[in-house]
C-alpha cells in the first residue's frame, strides 16, 4: 500500500516538474525544475528496489548533466524571458496529447506477469563488472582517466599573452600603423612640388 501511494506521489510530482521545464520561459526555473524532476525519478528507482539505478540517476543526471546546463546558463542573461518563435502551441499540445493517450491505451491493455526476484541488483551488477567484465571495466576507467588528465592539461595551459598584454599589443599596433601612415603622407607631400601642393590646399 505504501509503495503504491509513494509511486503515485512521485509520478505526479515528476509530471509537474517536467511540465514546468517545458512551459516556463525562465531558464533558471526550468533548470531547477529539471533537477527536481531527476531526483524524483531516482526515487521511483528506489521504490522498484533498483538502488544502483537510483544512485546513478542522482550522480549522472542531477550531479553532472544539470551542472553542465548550469554552466551553460551562465553564458546567457537569465533575467530575460525566452521568446518562442513557434507560436502555434495548441497544435503541439494536441499532437502530444494524442500520442500520450494512444501510448497509455496500448500499454494499459498489455498484461504481463514478471516473476519477482528478491535479490540485490547492486551485488549482481558488481559481480558482473568486477568478475566477468573486469578487463572492459578497467579499460573504460583508464580511458576516462586519460580524458580527465587531458582536460586538466588543456585547462591549465598558460596562454602566451594575457588579456591585458593582448590589448596593449593591439593598441601599440594601431599607434604604429597610424605613425606609419603619417610618415607616408609626409613623404607624399614632400614629393609634390610646392606650387601643386598650394593649389591642392587652395582647392
From TrEMBL:
<keyword id="KW-0830">Ubiquinone</keyword>
<feature type="transmembrane region" description="Helical">
    <location>
        <begin position="128"/>
        <end position="154"/>
    </location>
</feature>
<dbReference type="GO" id="GO:0008137">
    <property type="term" value="F:NADH dehydrogenase (ubiquinone) activity"/>
</dbReference>
<dbReference type="InterPro" id="IPR042106">
    <property type="entry name" value="Nuo/plastoQ_OxRdtase_6_NuoJ"/>
</dbReference>
<keyword id="KW-0472">Membrane</keyword>
<keyword id="KW-0874">Quinone</keyword>
<protein>
    <recommendedName>
        <fullName>NADH-quinone oxidoreductase subunit J</fullName>
        <ecNumber>7.1.1.-</ecNumber>
    </recommendedName>
</protein>
<feature type="transmembrane region" description="Helical">
    <location>
        <begin position="6"/>
        <end position="23"/>
    </location>
</feature>
<feature type="transmembrane region" description="Helical">
    <location>
        <begin position="28"/>
        <end position="48"/>
    </location>
</feature>
<keyword id="KW-1133">Transmembrane helix</keyword>
<feature type="transmembrane region" description="Helical">
    <location>
        <begin position="90"/>
        <end position="108"/>
    </location>
</feature>
<comment type="function">
    <text>NDH-1 shuttles electrons from NADH, via FMN and iron-sulfur (Fe-S) centers, to quinones in the respiratory chain. Couples the redox reaction to proton translocation (for every two electrons transferred, four hydrogen ions are translocated across the cytoplasmic membrane), and thus conserves the redox energy in a proton gradient.</text>
</comment>
<keyword id="KW-0520">NAD</keyword>
<dbReference type="GO" id="GO:0048038">
    <property type="term" value="F:quinone binding"/>
</dbReference>
<dbReference type="Pfam" id="PF00499">
    <property type="entry name" value="Oxidored_q3"/>
</dbReference>
<keyword id="KW-1003">Cell membrane</keyword>
<comment type="similarity">
    <text>Belongs to the complex I subunit 6 family.</text>
</comment>
<dbReference type="InterPro" id="IPR001457">
    <property type="entry name" value="NADH_UbQ/plastoQ_OxRdtase_su6"/>
</dbReference>
<dbReference type="GO" id="GO:0005886">
    <property type="term" value="C:plasma membrane"/>
</dbReference>
<keyword id="KW-0812">Transmembrane</keyword>
<feature type="transmembrane region" description="Helical">
    <location>
        <begin position="54"/>
        <end position="78"/>
    </location>
</feature>
Amino acid at each position: 500500500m505504501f509503495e503504491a501511494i509513494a509511486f503515485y506521489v512521485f509520478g505526479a510530482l515528476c509530471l509537474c516538474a517536467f511540465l514546468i521545464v517545458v512551459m516556463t520561459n525562465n531558464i533558471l526555473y526550468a533548470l531547477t525544475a529539471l533537477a527536481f524532476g531527476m531526483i524524483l525519478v531516482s526515487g521511483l528507482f528506489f521504490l522498484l528496489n533498483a538502488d544502483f539505478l537510483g544512485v546513478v540517476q542522482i550522480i549522472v543526471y542531477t550531479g553532472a548533466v544539470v551542472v553542465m546546463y548550469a554552466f551553460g546558463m551562465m553564458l546567457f542573461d537569465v533575467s530575460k524571458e525566452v521568446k518562442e518563435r513557434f507560436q502555434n502551441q495548441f497544435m503541439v499540445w494536441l499532437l502530444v496529447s494524442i500520442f500520450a493517450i494512444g501510448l497509455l491505451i496500448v500499454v494499459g491493455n498489455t498484461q504481463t506477469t514478471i516473476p519477482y526476484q528478491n535479490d540485490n541488483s547492486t551485488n549482481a551488477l558488481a559481480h558482473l563488472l568486477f568478475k566477468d567484465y573486469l578487463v572492459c571495466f578497467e579499460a573504460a576507467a583508464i580511458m576516462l582517466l586519460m580524458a580527465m588528465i587531458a582536460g586538466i592539461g588543456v585547462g591549465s595551459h598558460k596562454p602566451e599573452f594575457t588579456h591585458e598584454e593582448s590589448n596593449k599589443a593591439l593598441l601599440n599596433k594601431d599607434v604604429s600603423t597610424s605613425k606609419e601612415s603619417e610618415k607616408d603622407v609626409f613623404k607624399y607631400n614632400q614629393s609634390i612640388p610646392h606650387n601643386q601642393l598650394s593649389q591642392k590646399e587652395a582647392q
